[in-house]
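Agenda item 2: adenosine-5'-triphosphate complex prediction
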Amino acid sequence: MLVGLWTRDVRNLEEARIRFGSGLNLIVGANGSGKTSLLEACHVLAIGRSFRTHRLARVARTGVGAFSIAGELWDSIHGQSRAGVEWKGQRRSRLNGQWLEGHWEIARRMPLLSVHAGSFDLLTGAPEERRRLLDWGSFYLHTDFVQQWLLWRRAHEQRNAALRQQDAQAAERFEPVAAAAGTRLTEMRASVVEHLRRHLNASATSGMRQGLSGEIDLAFRQGWSENETLADAYARGRTSDLERRFGQSGPQKADLEIRLAGRPVREASRGEQKRVLNALVIAQGLVLVGINPGGGAPLLLLDDAVAEMDDAGLERLIDAIATLQWQCLVTTVDSEWGWRVAKRYPGTQMFHVKHGAVEPQPMAD
Ligand SMILES: Nc1ncnc2c1ncn2[C@@H]1O[C@H](COP(=O)(O)OP(=O)(O)OP(=O)(O)O)[C@@H](O)[C@H]1O
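Presented output:
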């Protein structure tokens, strides 16, 4: 749970200090006030990346060239932790006063899920987006994920470098490690698909699926022929890989096919896609909770919740989150909608954002 957040020089937010509630937190403000920037700060703190840009430099307030974000976290395994991330030409992360090598340790203590304008890329964009979903799940489900992923990526890049240099012997030398780590990585990804598939059809997502023309189904493509091992795929493809100067099969080619009513979800309507996204995000959260009951509940970020969804769809999503008792930050320009939600779910916290300043809103009786 994200108990408190402090940010400096994140986009138009000069400085913000917030104590969040453990349930629904509504962030209300006009267009351009800084609502998405606040969610972006949470995302950077949790994952070390933004959901709006690959370049953290862009997150820093124009003219400043640096930003800092700190959070007070709580989970049932570690108790209270203090996490921080700052950027000044490069990213540095720290946990409980110690500088970290990467950002993994914070991600583990702050599992986060988000739905925002870019989330549609998961359904309609490049396979990379869906591989990221599979790797996200593998990270939480399997303790050897980081080790195997780093092993595979290094061996894969070394093999590709050898292919570029037309050195068949060197390429072959990296294949055993790439095949072993790549096979394990693929097993983990397949297990995530199984978990997601099960939760997608669970009762917790039934509200999100209501009104859809059929079932949501997932099919995993591992990145090479199902009829051979990865070691065999590397060996069989080596001559052709040398001609092309890069490896054509392996985990870097994996994809997840998402189908609605038997058709690729990219052909579904925007409203249907939004429901599929919402069902997927709840399924992801259930995967986390399933690993660590009681301690693994995610922080959910919903940017511009009212956009692109009918009232019934939105109501069912908020209902599901409230029932599951997950912490959730929801932004909206619609303060009337915000007050309605706050009235319906006791314990909801409300914040108002105006010209980059965030203020808690006292709740009406
Ligand atoms: N690096 C930056 N430095 C300063 N301001 C920035 C930076 N990047 C974006 N902005 C500005 O910050 C403001 C807040 O943007 P943000 O996307 O957070 O608004 P929002 O409240 O989510 O708006 P909307 O409701 O329209 O989505 C915008 O005016 C934007 O132009």
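Discussion summary: Residues 11-12, 29, 31-37, 58, 61-62, 304, 333 surround adenosine-5'-triphosphate (CB under 6 Å).
Owner for follow-up: CH.
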